[in-house]
Amino acid sequence: HPDPVRTRKLLLHKLEIDKLIGKVQRAGYTIMPLNMHYKGSRVKLEIGLAKGKKEHDKRATEKERESKREAAQAIKKERR
């Protein structure tokens, strides 16, 4: 049986692979799986480049999440 966690070839042109590798190494991007589906014995994966959030974006997201949580708690408290 083949090793299930072995590395597999990307079915892309060499220039496309070089472009992805360059973005990941230099610009701080990450390759993310967007969509995965099976076709026979093969798995097809749609990938995308993603860039992490800046510190101020993280704080804004955290503040928004906190306010939503407090609103949900207030609604839950009112229902009792």
Which keywords apply here?
80 residues; two-stranded antiparallel ribbon; 2 helices; 48% helix
Describe the structure.
The chain is built from 2 helices and 2 strands. With 80 residues, it is of the alpha+beta class. It has one domain (14-79). It has a two-stranded antiparallel ribbon with strand order 1-2. Strand 1 and strand 2 (42-51) form a beta hairpin. The longest helix has 25 residues, at 55-79. 0% of the residues are buried.
On the 0-100 scale, what is the average pLDDT?
88
Which strand order spans the largest sheet, edge to edge or round the barrel? 1-2
Number of helices: 2
Count the E strands: 2
Number of domains in the coordinates? 1
Briefly summarize what is shown.
The chain has two helices and two strands, in the order αββα. The protein has helices at about 15-25, 55-80, and strands spanning about 30-40, 40-50.
Please specify the SSE layout and strand pairing.
Elements: H1 14-26, E1 29-39, E2 42-51, H2 55-79
Antiparallel strand pairs: 1-2
